[in-house]
Each structure stands twice: as C-alpha cells, then as structure tokens.
C-alpha cells in the first residue's frame, strides 16, 4: 500500500529575474529590452493556490498504475473539491494515504492502482476524510 | 430568545471580524498527524518548560495554560496525552497560510498575532454572518486550521464576540455581536480582566470601584476613566459602546515592557556564561524594541536557580536607568556589563536568566538629555539599522559578548523521558 512518508512545506521560490545582458548606454537603449519576459517559474506552473498547496512524499507501490512511484513527490491542493476519479490524500483511521477516490452508489471508495492491493470501502465506523487533492506527481527518471 | 446569531443582508457598514485560530499550535500539529485528533494534546515551550498550547481535550483535563510540564506530566501520561515540543518553523508557515487565505476575503486586514487577524468587513456585500461562516469554512479547508470568527462594530467588541463564539459550540465558531439583542447580558458575563487592553494590573484597580465586568466598564464615565487611568482605557469604554476608537493597526496600550528570558539547557555556574546568555537575550530584546519603534528607559537583568531544586530559591536582579531612553544594543550591553556582577552569585546553579526593558516610549517622542551625545546616538542608530537588516531573515551578525559555543543554550531537542516516549507514541506520517 502506498503511504505518505513525509510532508514538506513549500518554500517560496526567490523570483527569478531576467538578467539584462545588453549594456545600456545613455541614449541607446537595448533593442532587446522591450522583449524581455518573466523567467519560467515551476512553482507558478505547479501551484495554483499557494496557501492551500502542500508537498508530500510517497512510500510504496499501490498507485503505480497512476504513475505514482515509491519516493515520488506529490503536489496536493487542499482547496480543490474532490470528485469521483480524483487522486486524493485521504485520512483513514489516522493514517495518511494516497488513493483514487470513487463515489459508488453515493458512497466513497478508495481504489489503489495496483492489482496487488484491495479496494478499500469506507464503512460507517471508518474514520475517513479527504485531506487534499493531488494535482501533480514529480517523478525523477 | 437566546443570544444566537441573526441574519441580515446588504452592503456592510463599519464592521470588524476577529479571526482567531483555535488552539493554534495543537491544530498545526494535527494537520500533519491525524492520530492526534480526539485525544489530549499539549505543546511545550522551549526546553520542555511549560505548557503553551492545549487541545480542548487537554483543557478538559484541567491543565492550565503556562503550567510547568513536570507538574502535569503524570496526569498527561494517565490520559495518554500527546506531548509535543514546539515547532515554531511549522507554526510560522501555517500562520502565513492562514493569513494569505484571509487576504482573499478583504484587502483591509491586520495581522494581530501569529494566530489572530482583524478583518474590516466594511464595503463587502452580503450578510456578515454568512461571510464569517465562509471565512471559517475556507480557512479550515485550505489549511486544516479551525478558526473562530467574532464580528462586531469595534475591535474590542470583536474580541468579545470571538470569545463568545469559542465558548458556545451551538454558534459553530461564528458570532455576530452587532445583531444580538443580548449585548448587555453578554457583557455582564465578561470579566473585566478579559477585556482587550485592560489586563490584570488595571483590572485590580477597577474592581474595587465596582467595575467588575465589561458591562460595568461600558457604563462608566469615559472622561472620568481618562482622568483617573488613561486615554487608552477611556477609548476602551467607548469601544465597548460600539464607538470605533481603534482602527486597523491601532491597539490599546498593552505592551508595558519587553521581556526575553529562557531556561538554560544546562545549569550555568560561571559569570562568563551568564554574561553570554544575558547578552544574547538583550540583543533579541533590543531588536524587538526597535521593531516596535520604541526606546527603553530602564534595563533590568535577572537570573534565578531552579525553584524546585534542593538549594534555596533565589532570583537576584539589578536595574539600570538610562539618562535618555535608548534603543541601541551597544548602550544596553554596556549597562548590562555593570549590572552583571550584582546579579551573579558564585555557588549558584543558574537555571534561567532574562532581561526586561521597561519605561518604554515611542522612539520619536524621546526626551533628549541635556548632556546627550547626539553624534554617538546617530552613529549607533545607523549601526543598529544595518544590524537589523542583516539579521532580518536569519541571525548572521552577533556581538562577541553573546559567545560562540553557547553551552548554556536552551536545547530544542527535548530530553525529558516522557517526551521521548511520546515521540515513539506519535506515529510517523508514513
């Protein structure tokens, strides 16, 4: 079963500023200066809502079918509403786990993406809560 | 009818909301460790000293705020409570997230402390109560931190509304005091000491005069209060009546002094180590002083042994009065040097030391002394500005007198046996 190993807080990246390579002389501004754009910022790409976004690390292989491997980093956005089919971080009986959420006949079910593991049905007495919705996997090759 | 919430909808007039995180440190821990839910949890100050945060379950066990840990250790163990040492890095980050979330509701808000913010609701459209509930829901979903929201026409009443919301579960964490017909009966139930900006010392003076509750204070003659006590206290009277005196970023005078004190990681026996510790605390206190744009007239240095050891308890202290109130670390360090021999005693194992800055005045209202050396003062000020800028994010520059190895330093790694056992008790978020 895939479980979360650790949770990292996000450090705000130092904004990358474009470096002006052209020397600017009085009276002759660089013709390239007008075309400067912001540097590409991965934080901006991966994080839509910074106060609600957390990083977690995966341990285990229960979500391999979804491309989530042991040791991967997940980007989790707590402000998104979980839907049937979302990959979520869930709290189940006091543990944090990553699974695919399905709503079957109005009841939530946690599906692993690895046939080695069983589907977890959420019974009435189960302590269950969706902690956040996974938006991205960061997987080193 | 009861003292509940009534709905009302339109463009909102002058109205404040105080958003306060419930049991903030404990709530931060719970976000990442769900096993801490539904059991007593306490967070301890540095060095396992005192209880600085309690979950509702811990409060129900009768554990008071600020109590030394060892006094409640057995009680906590008996109830399988989780005992955590404080993780300020985590709390600061979570606080930022809460504040960023609040900023999405209104641009006019004031961060009042690590876990509290005042929001101005003026100009927003809709029902204040509904907005309050949305704030609570959003902060909880985005950050996992439960908050209470108190809504009122003044900041002082918003504090009371928040207190009311926290203590009445049927309100579900949100209370709008401006729409209640029970304001007098609510104020009658608020002890005078609990009123924002009144505090213990002033309440001790007010009680013999028959002013025992917020209601009594609201009924008092503001002019008389001002003459007898302070302008600030008189403004509190008006605020209780719904008249705005404190805007965002304005607060009643509460900071009468600045204290920095810590327990040592191991007992201190030499004057050199005591001096290092005092210098370190002083440098922090002076930094706080400058952050608040204040100058101090009086510096007090104190040290004490453990009040629970076999040796008789002693807490020597000595004070220095500056001719001109100062905010220069250099000047204070010089003064501290002269005080130290009066505080230090051989044969005493010091357990804690601290510095207290009092007689605080706003930096721009300092009365200069006739013989004051203005050029030295100006030079010092510039140096302090540079120092504060360098140390703003992380301490990079320090005074040699603060010492380098600092063997006395408060240990952040908790050594108390109960604490270590609790760590293994806390499942790793695996």
Characterise this structure.
The complex is a heterodimer of chains A (141) and B (430). With 141 residues, chain A is mostly beta strands. Helix content of chain A is 4%, strand content 37%. Chain A has one helix at 42-46; strands spanning 3-8, 53-59, 73-77, 87-92, 95-104, 107-111, 120-121, 128-138. In chain A, a hairpin with a 2-residue loop joins strand 5 (95-104) and strand 6. The radius of gyration of chain A is 21 Å and the shape is elongated. By secondary structure, chain B is of the alpha+beta class. In chain B, a hairpin with a 2-residue loop joins strand 6 (109-113) and strand 7. The longest helix of chain B is centred in the middle third of the chain and has 21 residues, at 271-291. In chain B, 38% of the residues are buried. Mean pLDDT of chain B is 85; it is low at 412-430. Classes of the chains: A mainly beta (141), B alpha+beta (430).
Radius of gyration of chain B, Cα only, in angstroms?
24 Å
Query: Which percent range describes the beta-strand content of chain A?
Result: 35-45%
Structural class of chain A: mainly beta
The chain pair forming the largest interface, with residue counts per chain, is: A-B, 20 and 19 residues
Descriptive terms for the model:
heterodimer, A: 141 residues, mainly beta, 8-stranded antiparallel β-sheet, 4% helix, 37% strand, elongated, B: 430 residues, alpha+beta, 5-stranded mixed β-sheet, 4-stranded antiparallel β-sheet, disordered C terminus
């Amino acid at each position: 079963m895939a479980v979360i190993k650790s949770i990292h807080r996000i450090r705000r990246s130092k904004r990358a500023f474009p470096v002006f390579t052209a020397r600017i002389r009085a009276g002759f501004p660089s013709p390239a200066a007008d075309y400067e754009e912001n540097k590409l910022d991965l934080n901006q790409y991966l994080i839509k809502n910074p106060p609600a976004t957390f990083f977690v690390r995966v341990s285990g292989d229960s979500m391999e079918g979804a491309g989530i491997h042991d040791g991967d980093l997940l980007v989790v956005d707590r402000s998104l509403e979980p839907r049937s089919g979302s990959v979520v971080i869930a709290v189940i009986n006091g543990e944090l786990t990553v699974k695919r959420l399905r709503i079957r006949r109005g009841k939530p079910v946690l599906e692993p993406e690895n046939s080695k593991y069983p589907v977890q049905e959420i019974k009435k007495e189960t302590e269950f809560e969706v902690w956040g919705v996974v938006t991205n996997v960061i997987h080193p090759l | 009818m009861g003292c509940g919430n009534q709905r009302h909808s339109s463009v909102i007039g002058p109205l404040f909301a105080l958003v306060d995180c419930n049991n903030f440190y404990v709530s931060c821990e719970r976000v990442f460790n769900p096993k801490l839910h539904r059991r007593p949890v306490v967070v301890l100050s540095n060095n396992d000293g005192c209880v600085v945060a309690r979950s509702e379950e811990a409060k129900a066990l009768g554990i008071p705020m600020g109590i030394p840990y060892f006094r409640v250790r057995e009680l906590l163990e008996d109830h399988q409570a989780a005992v955590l040492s404080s993780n300020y890095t985590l709390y600061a980050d979570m606080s930022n997230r809460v504040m960023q979330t609040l900023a999405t509701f209104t641009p006019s808000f004031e961060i009042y402390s690590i876990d509290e913010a005042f929001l101005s609701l003026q100009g927003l459209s809709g029902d204040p109560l509904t907005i309050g509930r949305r704030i609570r829901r959003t902060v909880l979903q985005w950050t996992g931190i439960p908050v209470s929201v108190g809504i009122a026409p003044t900041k002082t009443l918003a504090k009371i509304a928040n207190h009311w919301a926290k203590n009445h579960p049927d309100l579900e964490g949100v209370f709008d005091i401006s729409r209640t017909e029970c304001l007098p009966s609510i104020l009658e139930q608020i002890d005078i000491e609990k009123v924002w900006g009144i505090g213990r010392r002033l309440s001790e003076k007010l009680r013999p005069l028959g002013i025992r509750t917020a209601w009594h204070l609201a009924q008092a003659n503001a002019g008389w209060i001002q003459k007898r006590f302070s302008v600030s206290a008189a403004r509190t009277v008006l605020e209780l009546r719904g008249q705005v005196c404190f805007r965002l970023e304005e607060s009643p005078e509460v900071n009468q002094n600045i204290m920095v004190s810590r327990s040592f990681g191991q007992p201190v026996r030499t004057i050199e180590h005591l001096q290092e510790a005092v210098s370190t605390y002083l440098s922090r206190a002076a930094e706080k002083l400058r952050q608040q744009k204040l100058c101090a007239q009086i510096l007090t240095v104190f040290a004490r042994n453990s009040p629970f050891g076999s040796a008789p308890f002693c807490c020597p202290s000595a004070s220095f009065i500056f001719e001109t109130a100062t905010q220069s670390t250099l000047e204070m360090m010089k003064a501290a040097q002269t005080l130290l021999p009066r505080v230090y005693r051989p044969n005493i194992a010091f357990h804690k030391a601290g510095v207290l800055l009092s007689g605080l005045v706003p930096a721009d209202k300092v009365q200069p002394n006739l013989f004051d050396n203005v050029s030295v003062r100006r030079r010092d000020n510039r140096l302090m500005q540079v120092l504060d800028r360098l140390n703003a994010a992380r301490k990079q520059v320090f005074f040699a007198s603060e010492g380098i190895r600092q063997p006395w330093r408060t240990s952040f790694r908790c050594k108390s046996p109960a604490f270590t056992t609790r760590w293994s008790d806390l499942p790793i978020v695996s």
